[in-house]
Design brief:
2 copies of one chain form a homodimer. Chain A has 2 helices and 6 strands, in the order βαββββαβ. The first copy, chain A, is α+β, with helices and mostly antiparallel strands and 116 residues long. The first copy, chain A, has one domain: 4-Layer Sandwich (S-adenosylmethionine decarboxylase). Chain A starts with 5 loop residues before the first strand and ends with a strand. In chain A, strand 4 and strand 5 form a beta hairpin. At the A-B interface, strand 1, strand 2, strand 3, strand 4 and strand 5 of A face strand 1, strand 2, strand 3, strand 4 and strand 5 of B.
Chain lengths: 116, 116
């Protein structure tokens, strides 16, 4: 019934000690996150972002290769990030760019194979 | 700088041996996936789905509590599913419903805590 075929590589990333001012507003996060997707080489299909009050952002980018997702907690300088790719992309370049742009002091990342 | 605060619970789920006819088209997958989100008690903010040719679907649901994501491979009866929740939701009810609706013969699921 099933095989061990790998369908996607899923990076689960936490950015710690981020600059709160960089992750508070959609205007900033949307710009940076879309640029990260472009840097990875992903093909962006659609995206949307939601502003939480008083602060915090959720964003999703649907890419041809699967998806990017981000959730931010500015009050704690915390970002949870997902990059799920079924294609050839440089996910690490996107992660490195996001770490730099959000001023993260530390990064925790796990790579999970999504397989049958 | 960091704490062990848990920001979200992330279910990574693979549905194996699904009925291909149930996961081929946006029309079917969108209806079922939105119903799964409702069953979990999530508050749906926005959603979109993309049809791949000749078959296969990607779908994202942005919820107040974080997000749902789905990618299907009808040719293999395979579905990769994510439920990321920062609130009180019955994610297991959603997973059980999707297993039933897609006719999955087996489910593999992992729960990852997204923490600081």
């Amino acid at each position: 019934m099933t095989s061990s075929k790998i369908y996607g590589h899923h990076y689960l990333v936490e950015l710690l000690g981020c600059d709160p001012s960089r992750i508070q507003q959609v205007s900033t996060v949307e710009h940076v996150f879309l640029e990260a997707a472009r840097i990875s080489g992903a093909t962006i299909v659609e995206h949307f972002f939601k502003q939480y009050e008083p602060e915090g952002v959720t964003g999703i980018i649907l890419i041809s290769e699967s998806h990017f997702a981000i959730h931010t907690w500015p009050e704690d300088g915390f970002v949870a990030l997902d990059i799920f790719t079924c294609g050839t992309m440089d996910s690490q370049a996107a992660i490195d760019f996001l770490k730099q742009e959000f001023g993260a002091q530390d990064v925790r990342q796990r790579l999970v194979e999504r397989h049958g």
